[in-house]
Design a protein that fits this description.
Layout: H1 12-17, H2 22-28, H3 35-54, H4 62-78, H5 85-88, H6 92-95, H7 106-109
Length: about 110
């Protein structure tokens, strides 16, 4: 017996276009979250979510695609539950941090 999609008009991508904030996404997928984590890492979580999605081959079947979106969001959110932005290096400002050295010669100092 074949599985039947109850709502033939359901389109997860259309639904997701209406979501704006990290809270919107988490609530839409019924994912419990800590307000403090979201307040601190909202942009990082959404960027990580975007990065993961861009590397994922998504199913054509709407219910499977919805589950993929949900699992990827859980993964993005959980990466900041026990970590921080500097460690995760999601945003460009943190990716560019690292040992940097600049040499200034004595001649340049006394010009």
């Amino acid at each position: 017996m074949n599985a039947v999609n109850i709502d033939d008009d359901f389109d997860i991508d259309d639904d997701m276009e209406d979501l704006v904030s990290a809270e919107d996404f988490l609530n839409y997928f019924d994912i419990p979250f800590d307000e403090t984590t979201i307040n601190v890492y909202r942009l990082h979580i959404l960027q990580r979510y975007h990065d993961y999605l861009s590397k994922t081959e998504l199913s054509e079947q709407q219910n499977e695609r919805r589950e993929q979106y949900k699992q990827i969001l859980i993964q993005a959110y959980e990466s900041f539950v026990d970590s921080d932005a500097k460690t995760e290096k999601v945003l460009k400002i943190y990716k560019n941090l690292g040992p940097q050295s600049t040499f200034v010669s004595m001649e340049q100092i006394f010009k």
